[in-house]
């Protein structure tokens, strides 16, 4: 029986979920050498009994990794742990004769321009958009309109700039095209594309779907809160969203799956709900970040990671149809500078409903302006009988944490 899980791209959350659900030593991780070293992943990996082997290869915009995996046997499933690993996981799954997103779908999901073209061609609602290579392209497109400037094939809200009518297009282009991911990216030349699109207005949501052979078999809708101003960094999520129009969400998710030709796996899509209905912002063919999987597990009483991998392995899966309670996360931010003190963590941890307080930075660390997910410094997760109660608990606890910078 095939027991090994191949995870392309180290993901601590996925490994934590598998520690509780998979045999010791059953996971093989493939990671870029630069990321392994730059993110000090060896120390984190040592905490996971499920992790049995680590291999090193180039998968970010590269196919060298296939030679590193050619001798791997007894693989149960192949899964992408990170955004940049989605095409590699699809290619590897196909080579091993296993279920996956499909190489064409994975390619579409890694390029927002290609995704816009595919969903528009399928008749899905979309804002006006175009590829850009300069600030002049933004000027030509905007014509006094509010718009969004963003990389087509990067991650974590990196380089996304909201531009108001008459805004500084030179600044927007510079911040979009020169965004730096630091140790999240291998140290070799990469190819990037950029786009500008009409800015949508309305509440923002995400959907998390498990898909089996082109059919949505699990759907969650998440409400999200983003930072005001030009950089829409996510500050909180609530599961499930207080939106009872599930029929509409099921319909648009089914349209999305069909439009990209997605076969099997997990889809994390982001939407703006306009007066005419949900309009797609973007979609990823990997687990959501921001600990949304943890929120789903708490709310639905499920290990969604294991369910996702079981589908990739071609196994039967029993999935919940409704949430049992609510779960929410609030992110901790700070003013730019050097962290002088962090206070209130214990008080927040002891608040009603709080399940976890996670602070990822320490005194002495330098903090930049809040321009991407990497600039947040921690989070608070809480549960409640309802989504509203969970959100209240998470918000109240997060307000107890004070981060002073100098």
Give the structure's gist in a few sentences:
The protein is of the alpha+beta class and 406 residues long.
Keywords, please?
alpha+beta; 14 helices; Dna Ligase, domain 1; 4-stranded parallel beta sheet; 4 domains; 406 residues; D-amino Acid Aminotransferase, Chain A, domain 1
Structure report:
The protein has 14 helices and 19 strands. The chain folds into 4 domains: 4-98; 101-120 and 200-324, D-amino Acid Aminotransferase, Chain A, domain 1; 128-198, 2-Layer Sandwich (Dna Ligase, domain 1); 326-405, ATP-grasp fold, B domain (D-amino Acid Aminotransferase, Chain A, domain 1, 2-Layer Sandwich), CATH 3.30.470.20. The strands form 4 sheets. The chain has an 8-stranded antiparallel β-sheet. It has a 4-stranded parallel β-sheet with strand order 3-2-1-4, sandwiched between helices. It has 406 residues and is an alpha+beta fold. 29% of the residues lie in helices and 29% in strands.
Widest sheet: strand ordering: 13-12-9-10-11-14-18-16
Query: What is the 3D shape?
Result: globular
**Strand element count:** 19
Helix content: 25-40%
Largest sheet: 8 strands, antiparallel
The CATH class assignment of the largest domain is Alpha Beta
List unreliable stretches of 5+ residues.
none
Protein name: ATP-grasp domain-containing protein
GO molecular function: ATP binding; ligase activity; metal ion binding
Pfam families: ATP-grasp_4 (PF13535), LAL_C2 (PF18603)
Domain ATP-grasp: 116-313
């Amino acid at each position: 029986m095939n027991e090994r899980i191949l995870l392309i791209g180290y993901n601590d959350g996925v490994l934590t979920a598998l520690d509780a659900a998979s045999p010791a030593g059953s996971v093989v991780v493939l990671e870029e050498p630069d990321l392994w070293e730059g993110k000090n992943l060896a120390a984190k990996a040592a905490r996971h009994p499920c992790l049995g082997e680590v291999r090193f290869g180039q998968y970010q915009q590269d196919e060298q990794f296939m030679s590193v995996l050619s001798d791997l046997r007894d693989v149960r499933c192949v899964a992408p742990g990170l955004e940049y690993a989605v095409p590699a996981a699809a290619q590897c799954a196909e080579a091993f004769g296993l279920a996956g997103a499909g190489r064409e779908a994975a390619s579409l999901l890694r390029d927002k321009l290609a995704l816009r073209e595919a969903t528009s061609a399928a008749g899905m609602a979309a804002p006006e958009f175009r590829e850009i290579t300069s600030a002049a392209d933004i000027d030509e497109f905007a014509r006094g309109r509010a718009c969004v400037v963003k990389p087509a094939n990067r991650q974590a809200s990196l380089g996304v700039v909201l531009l108001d009518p008459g805004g500084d297009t030179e600044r927007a282009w510079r911040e979009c095209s020169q965004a730096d991911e630091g140790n999240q990216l291998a140290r070799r030349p990469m190819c990037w594309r950029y786009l500008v699109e009409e800015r949508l207005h309305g509440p923002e949501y995400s959907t998390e779907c498990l898909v089996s052979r082109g059919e949505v078999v699990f759907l969650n809708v998440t409400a999200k809160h983003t930072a005001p101003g030009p950089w829409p960094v996510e500050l909180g999520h609530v599961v499930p969203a207080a939106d009872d129009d599930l029929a509409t969400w099921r319909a648009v998710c089914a349209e999305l799956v069909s439009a990209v030709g997605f076969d099997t796996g997990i889809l994390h899509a982001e939407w703006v709900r306009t007066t005419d209905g949900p309009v797609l912002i973007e979609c990823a063919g990997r687990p959501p970040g921001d600990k949304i999987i943890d929120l789903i597990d708490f709310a639905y009483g499920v290990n969604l990671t294991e369910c996702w991998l079981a589908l990739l392995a071609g196994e039967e899966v029993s999935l919940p149809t409704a949430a049992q309670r609510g779960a929410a996360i609030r992110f901790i931010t700070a003013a730019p500078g050097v962290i002088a003190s962090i206070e209130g963590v214990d008080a927040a941890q002891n608040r009603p409903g709080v399940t976890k307080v996670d602070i990822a930075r320490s005194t002495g660390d330098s903090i930049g302006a809040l321009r991407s997910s990497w600039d947040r410094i921690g989070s608070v997760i809480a549960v409640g009988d309802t989504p509203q109660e969970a959100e209240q608990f998470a918000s109240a606890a997060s307000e107890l944490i004070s981060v002073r910078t100098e």
